[in-house]
């Protein structure tokens, strides 16, 4: 068993009322171990920046 530097499960990030979509990110799970690198890749508007902001608080 390894220690996780970052572990999140089933994270949803909702958008403000009136947006085209209800959720920007749905059911996100990450388990990042020491020495691993995580890259978040996606189209414009897919929730990459919102994910990073949510993880940083």
Low-confidence runs of at least 5 consecutive residues = none
Roughly how many Å apart are the termini?
27 Å
The ordered string of helix (H) and strand (E) elements is: EEH
Which strand order does the major sheet show?
A: 1-2
Instruction: Round the Cα radius of gyration to an integer and report it.
Output: 13 Å
Q: Give the class from helix and strand content and strand pairing.
A: alpha+beta
Number of helices: 1
Mean pLDDT: 92
Largest sheet: 2 strands, antiparallel
**Strand tally:** 2
How many domain units?
1
Task: Report the portion of residues in β strands.
Answer: 25-35%
**Silhouette:** elongated
Residues in helices, as a percent range: 10-25%
């Amino acid at each position: 068993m390894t220690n996780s530097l970052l572990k999140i499960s089933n994270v949803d990030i909702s958008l403000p009322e009136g947006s085209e979509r209800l959720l920007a990110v749905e059911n996100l799970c990450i388990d990042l171990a020491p020495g691993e690198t995580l890259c978040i890749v996606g189209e414009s508007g897919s929730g990459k920046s919102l994910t990073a902001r949510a993880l940083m608080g």
